[in-house]
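Hi there. Long-time user, first ticket. I'm pasting a complex I've been working with (about 324 residues overall). I'd like to know whether the download I got is complete or cut off, because the file seemed smaller than I expected. Thanks.
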Amino acid sequence: MTPDQIVIAAAISSWQQVITRVGALCLSLNEEQLLVEVAPGKNRILYLWGHLTAIHDAMFNVLRLEERLHPELDAIFIAQPDQSMPLPTSAEIAKCWEAIHTALLSKFTTLGPHEWLERHGNVSAEEFEQNSTRNRLAVLLHRTNHASCHCGQMMLATFKTP
Amino acid sequence: MTPDQIVIAAAISSWQQVITRVGALCLSLNEEQLLVEVAPGKNRILYLWGHLTAIHDAMFNVLRLEERLHPELDAIFIAQPDQSMPLPTSAEIAKCWEAIHTALLSKFTTLGPHEWLERHGNVSAEEFEQNSTRNRLAVLLHRTNHASCHCGQMMLATFKTP
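Hi, the file is complete. Here it is re-exported in full:
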């Protein structure tokens, strides 16, 4: 591998570590445990799991890869806070989680270093010309941090479960 | 910048975003707020701040950069869990936090892409020959995720403060 390929592989590996941790954590909890709030009156673990699923599904668009798989998740997990509408079952979220992350990883490994440094989908070609840091890789790193942040919250909440 | 320089810059920028967020959060809290537990019976925000400070200070060694600045932090924030000994004041932790991260960032920006892909300090040259993913960059990405994880916990705890 060339140096830039190794660097990209490290970023994908870092993403994959967090995704694996969140998936393993959520799949290890029963329905009751998934409904524990991470802090009083705050998001439940199940909501955060769906929230990460929706945000990551939207990466298909933000990374300009292909059509996303589950746009219907946004209405529940992005547009609305927790406790405002009924959530899908954990089995439904697990199925979306698995499908989305398998498809994302498969796409990630086909992009070359130069493609990772191309503009992301929320920035115009003109804006990108002014600021080349707004590239696909920056999105990957940012989403990895975002998932780590919520993973830390989920881990706390699991201390409270029976 | 060459592609591999842009990629490294993105990783450093991602690190710096998290460090800035943690620093701003902790500096915005008073002494009483810093002593709130992130979950019942779990770490207090002040402990987590010191924990991240100690872990990041140790990066001088793990990244084979130079002597670390505050090895004395390990006894309090790594070897022992919270509530087992008196903590330094927030002013002391803030001073260490600032000094360590200023020095780290200054070092980070002098390393070239090839240096980021050299082995980290917890792996021998022989082991690294077998597995080149155990490089400095992997440490940076891992520590960024670790800090994001605790940052998410700290953010939750601040909801509980007066």
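A couple of notes from our side: Chain B touches chain A at residues 3-4, 6-11, 13-14, 17-18, 38-40, 42, 113-114, 116-117, 132-133, 135, 137-138, 141-142, 144-146, 148-153, 155-157, 159-160 (CB under 8 Å). Residues 3-27 of chain B form the longest helix (25 residues).
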